[in-house]
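PROTEIN DATA CARD
Card holder: G-protein coupled receptors family 1 profile domain-containing protein
Chain length: 374
Origin: Anopheles atroparvus
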Amino acid sequence: LNISDGVVAGTVTLAVNCCTTEPNFSNYLESLPNDRAGLLAFLFLFSFATVFGNSLVILAVIRERYLHTATNYFVTSLAVADCLVGLVVMPFSALYEVLQNTWFFGTDWCDIWRSLDVLFSTASILNLCVISLDRYWAITDPFSYPMKMTRRKAVALIAAVWICSSAISFPAIVWWRAAREEAMPPFKCTFTEHLGYLVFSSTISFYLPLLVMVFTYCRIYRAAAIQTRSLKLGTKQVLMASGELQLTLRIHRGGTTRERPNHPRLLPPASSQQLLSNNGLGGRHRPHMGKNFSLSRKLAKFAKEKKAAKTLGIVMGVFIVCWLPFFVVNLLSGFCMHCIAHEEIVSAVVTWLGWINSSMNPVIYACWSRDFRR
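Structure generated from the sequence above:
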């Protein structure tokens, strides 16, 4: 995972201390041209916006009890990862690139910073993957989902995300140092170009989660389309545990309903009359008031899950647009370092494009999630 290895085109006058030829950090900043100083300010502002937006999501879930759901726990874990990207990774990358790939913070912090970059970016992507799985389970099995997705199971999935991300990042420091054929140059913070690590980390951090997200969203879209079409036609079918399709709901629009042989019992007239068959949802016929209330809750729940699926689709689309270019360049540079023209500039652009994903996620949830807009 070759994050933050880019450089922005341009030149910077080397600031030299009066007593040494080594670059001095404060003098380096003071000698920045106006355009590079403006770029640094913009990147810092972007980092602050990322931290601020994700912090609002975290605070909203902590303060509002109605947001204490399994799905929003996953969203909070995502916001924590994205917030740390903006707080720890982006500022040092902005300095490193604007100062023409000059690193002032030591070799040890260089390796730790690179590891944190891998950790938080991978955790962000894996959290998106878990959210897609959660929405898949919710919309394909909405009735039993609340019982299956308990708080304990949600915490276990979140822990698995962070453990997996840590396993990819911190142990890799040993790998990086062992794979280096020569010592790192002074005032540099280069990332490993070891092909094995690039393939391994890219597969775990992006390509496998991408396959899972595409698969789950396709299934979610198909399930939502089928249920929406069934509701419009007046029937909703549910795949029972035995695999047999049974009629569960019939909606008759208008004020009156004609009696049919297979539905001898009619409910009182209403703007949208509903008739339940004896299919296990309601057991034996009970008073229609209770059935109507239960049915309304199920329909409202389906509408909410469908809205969440649309939000997930937007999140996944932004995720692919932001991260796919980086991981394509990442693998391509490992196989053929000279195949990419202006590699340093391209690497910088696709790296920051990937980090844009961390700033976009809270915007998407704020705009598309009714719960977060309250």
